[in-house]
Amino acid sequence: MSAITTIAKWEVKPGELKTVLSLLSQLAIKSKEEESNLFYNVLQSNADPNLIVLLEGYADETALTSHRNSEHFQQFVVQEIVPRLVNREVILAREITLDDFYPN
After folding, report:
1. Can you give the pLDDT at residue 103?
2. Mean pLDDT of the chain
3. Where does the sequence pass through the membrane (predicted)?
4. Is residue 17 part of a domain?
5. DSSP letter assigned to residue 13
6. Closest by alpha carbon to 5, among 39, 45, 49?
7. How many angstroms separate the CA atoms of 79 and 43, rounded?
């Protein structure tokens, strides 16, 4: 199995950004402690501070499922953060090698 990257785009409701970032800080600490977590990066749009993008890497699908079922994901994301969002999009992706398509 190959590593999987999660790209999550969160549009935070007006007035909820400070709370979401505080919760996200706690979530990031716990997520980075997961054995199969490869990286956990939080980005904020320059044009719209209420737009947050998460880049997360996991060793494989099993690791991602474990993360999503974790107590901290359920508490912080499902129970606390999602109700404070206008919209949430998640893309699951795998790295590809372009050399396979454009050989030298």
Report:
1. 65
2. 95
3. none
4. yes
5. P
6. 39
7. 22
Residue 92 and residue 69: Cα distance in Å, rounded? 16
- Which two three-digit tokens encode residue 82? 């999602």
Structural domain of 17: 4-93
Query: What pLDDT is recorded for position 22?
Result: 98
Q: What confidence score (pLDDT) does residue 96 get?
A: 84
CB atoms within 10 A of CB 94: 10
On whether residue 56 sits in a domain, the answer given is yes
pTM of the model: 0.89
Would 102 be classed as within a structural domain? no
Please indicate, yes or no, if residue 98 is contained in any of the structural domains.
Answer: no
Asked whether 52 and 24 are in contact (CB, 8 A), the reply is: yes
- The identity of residue 76, as a single letter, is F
